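Q: What structure does this chain adopt?
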Amino acid sequence: MTCSPLRRRVLALAAGTLMLATGLPAAFAQGSGSAPIRVGGTLPLTGPLASVGMIHKLAAEVFVEDINKRGGLLGRKVEFVVLDDQSQPANARTLYERLITAEKVDLLMGPYGTSSILAAMGVAQRFNKLFIQSSLGEPALAPYDMQFPSLPLGPDPRLADTELILDGYASLPNPPKTIAFVTSKFPSALDLAKGGQEIAQRRGLKTVLALEYEFGTRDFGAIAARIKDANPDVLWSGAVGMEAVQLLDAMKRIDYLPKRHFYLFPAPGPTAGHPNAAGVTSLTWFEDHDPFIKNAGAADFVAAFVQKAKGAGLPYPVAEYQAASEFAAWQIMEAAANGAGKIDDKAMAAWLKANKVQTVLGVRSFEGKFNSSAPDTKLKQVQGGKWVTVWPAKFRPPGGAFQ
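A:
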């Protein structure tokens, strides 16, 4: 039976309404009829980690938009189902169960932050799901065989990270002789601080202050005063997110600036933009300069992320390691699906165990303990309101120097 023009218009409108209700892109719904591949995860879009969570969300959106323009994954569009865990590990645990059982996502992408990653990983393990994550700070906390990190931390950053930091400072005139460890009780930060104290002792540095505070602390006045009294050659701060800015503010109020200061996992933009941040150092695995932008897909990623970050009003619209680690996690997922030839958690995990993946962070492989390969961590510094890599020297931008 032939449809009248009016009936055809009514049917077309109904189809459009259905696509809107189910969240299917119109162009895809008119294609093969296969459902999109739904990747589920949480991010801290509110709470103390929100400033970093938004960076990860935008980086994920850059990847999803790009892969869908390229025709999707295994010929199917990709949809990111992201929920707000509010920077709370208990929320992450509940929401990952919801993603698997109620939302029935095809694949999982890990949240941001060690505590939430561990909570979500426990859920993934119960359901035998592939679990790719971008920011676990302590690999030893993650023995699950089907978890894969995008950050090349190596199996023991607990000691290696502070070795790297002190190697960098030892290359400068007047290397430090005293050090203060002031850290959040955030699990990875606390463990890295304790490992750092071991390294300082081995190297003959005197620890003049060892202080721990609750994650989410906002009043750093008393902590700043104790740092000033100790007056270390290096402040090793296990600050997470906006804690670095809050500590810098507190020290500024009492007219104190450490001779040299390192912050572990700071919110990148607010920290770089702080008036007292010149010379501040932190860990990195990617910055938007040579040689990093020669990595697989890095130049296009940087351009797309900067455009999206500016559109979202990010105060620091720069593609640095937080954004790159999220993007690399999605590159790992894409490589695993293409390598396995299907969306199957166990098959994709087996492929990753046996192969290398080209990412914006460089080549990633997953041999060794905790599916972690050799460490590839660097030290970056705030110079002129921007983060640049300064150690090892071969990763500095052209003409760069450690100040």
